Amino acid sequence: MSDTRDQLDERGYARLGPLLADDEIADLATAFDDDARYRSRISMGRYRYGEGDYAYFASPLPPPVQRLREELYVPLAEIANGWARRAGSRSRWPETLDGLLARCRRHGQTRPTPLILRYGPGGYNTLHQDRYGEVAFPLQVVIGLTTPDVDYTGGEFVLTEQRPRAQSRATAVRLERGEGVVFPNDRRPVEGRRGVHHVTHRHGANEIRSGERIALGIIFHDAR
Asked: What's the sign of the alpha-carbon dihedral 214, 220, 221, 224?
């Protein structure tokens, strides 16, 4: 994960390469309307979150989602704890996903947060953070389930960062089918001329010009 750590430090996100097999991608992308899989659905337009829909998986999570949530958490917790040390914090994240979820339960956060997002033409997602409660792991992952310029056009994954006494910087990331991108959920420590300071991040999705864009979001902490 040293390359991932370096990418996060340098540009605020990191490409993880392909994370799902073709059959897993197809199953997740085509099952959005299967209500039995989900604990709740959200229409973005209703809450002015953008235009599109997303659905939170119910427990138990689909096996590929559970596997990725467990496997990705361990190396990302090492990065998150490195950030905590760099910022001078004594707090540390648990070494395993089970440890994180136990901490979530102690704070009343018991609902799973991995989700599927689906956008049609004109769809987009406003800039936001996915915190869901007092316990908020600082990294999360998005995985493309459709192919840019084939299944849809537009729809780049968008990240912004706000540094102290500076204008916000925006980055648009083309999300390939099956590819994972890890990024900060809230803040990350950055070395500056005056020492370490925090950069605040938000993320969203650019407008879909045509077709349908579907993505999987893996958030590690649970929600209230």
From this structure: positive
Q: Which helix (H) or strand (E) holds 108?
A: none
3-class DSSP state of 91: coil
Q: How many domains does the chain contain in total?
A: 1
Range of the domain at 172: 2-218
**224 in helix, strand or coil?**
coil
Residue 151 belongs to a domain: yes
Residue 61 maps to which CATH number? 2.60.120.620
Measured CA to CA, the distance from residue 10 to residue 4 in angstroms comes to 10
Domain membership of residue 98 (yes or no) is yes
Is 223 inside any structural domain?
no
Q: What are phi and psi of 13, to 5 degrees?
A: -155, 165
Please give the DSSP secondary-structure letter assigned to residue 156.
-
Query: Contact at 8 Å (CB) between 137 and 93?
Result: yes
Predicted TM-score (pTM) of this structure? 0.96
Asked if residue 52 belongs to a domain, the reply is yes
2-19 pLDDT tens trace? 799 999 999 999 999 999
- Between CA 161 and CA 73, with CA 157 as vertex, the angle to 5 degrees is 80
